[in-house]
Design a protein that fits this description.
InterPro entries: ANXUR1/2-like (IPR045272), Kinase-like_dom_sf (IPR011009), Prot_kinase_dom (IPR000719), Ser-Thr/Tyr_kinase_cat_dom (IPR001245). One of its GO terms (molecular function) is ATP binding. The chain is mainly alpha-helical. It contains 4 helices and 2 strands, in the order H-H-E-E-H-H. The chain is elongated.
């Protein structure tokens, strides 16, 4: 299995808040990053056709920051991809999905990711 991410040259929020090599973020910039994260969470809770399970968002600073220093949530479908891969590794044949089920699940995860990207990009301030 290969996972592909957008390249985020600005790293993570943790990098900007805790690493001394990064210049400090202004409060305005921090607020814009928070708004980006809020948009991502809003989509997870209300904008998706499918249930999305996440946890410990409040404790995580692994939010990625795009080239415009806007906050984005990590791709939510990655958990879906890993769940699909894990099911394929079931010990019993009856536990493993058919290739048709794998294809359908991957297509749904991809569509969900596309919807999430569009939803988050609506609010970029450049």
């Amino acid at each position: 299995m290969i996972l592909v991410y957008d390249y985020m040259a600005n790293g993570t929020l943790r990098d900007h808040l805790y690493k001394m090599k990064k210049p400090p973020l202004s409060w305005t910039r921090r607020l814009k990053i928070c708004i980006g994260a809020a948009r991502g969470l809003h989509y997870l809770h209300t904008g998706s056709k499918h249930s999305i399970i996440h946890r410990d968002v409040k404790r995580r600073f692994d939010q990625i920051i795009d080239p415009y220093l806007q906050g984005k949530m990590d791709p939510t479908s990655l958990r879906t991809f890993t769940d699909i891969a894990r099911k394929c590794l079931g010990e019993k044949g009856s536990e493993r999905p058919t290739m048709g089920e794998v294809l359908w699940n991957l297509e749904q995860a991809w569509l969900q990711q596309q919807e999430s990207d569009c939803f988050q990009n609506d609010g970029n301030y450049g």
